[in-house]
């Protein structure tokens, strides 16, 4: 019984982790594309961070630094044909 519960919990954490990494990747991709279009340099990240905080008060990790890291995450691995398909398999905190 304990093994069943532990296995289910581990599987649930892995799925949540996959979704979070996928979200970080997509946010990073969006920010990268926005940076290509923006004439304001990196200041667009500040306005996006503010918009997110207004929509989701108290959400963590979506401040300027967090968004910039998501952008870096995407930019670091986007061109890597080996890594890109494996991105959701990266383990954060597991």
TrEMBL record:
<dbReference type="InterPro" id="IPR053148">
    <property type="entry name" value="PD-DEXK-like_domain"/>
</dbReference>
<feature type="domain" description="YhcG N-terminal">
    <location>
        <begin position="3"/>
        <end position="92"/>
    </location>
</feature>
<dbReference type="InterPro" id="IPR041527">
    <property type="entry name" value="YhcG_N"/>
</dbReference>
<protein>
    <submittedName>
        <fullName>DUF1016 family protein</fullName>
    </submittedName>
</protein>
<dbReference type="Pfam" id="PF17761">
    <property type="entry name" value="DUF1016_N"/>
</dbReference>
């Amino acid at each position: 019984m304990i093994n069943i519960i532990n296995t289910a919990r581990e599987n649930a954490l892995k799925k949540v982790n996959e979704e979070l990494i996928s979200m970080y990747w997509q946010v990073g991709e969006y920010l990268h594309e926005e940076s290509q279009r923006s004439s304001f340099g990196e200041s667009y990240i500040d306005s996006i961070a503010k918009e997110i905080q207004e929509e989701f008060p108290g959400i963590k990790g979506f401040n300027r630094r967090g968004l910039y890291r998501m952008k870096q995450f995407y930019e670091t691995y986007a061109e890597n044909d080996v890594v890109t398909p494996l991105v959701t398999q990266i383990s954060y905190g597991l």
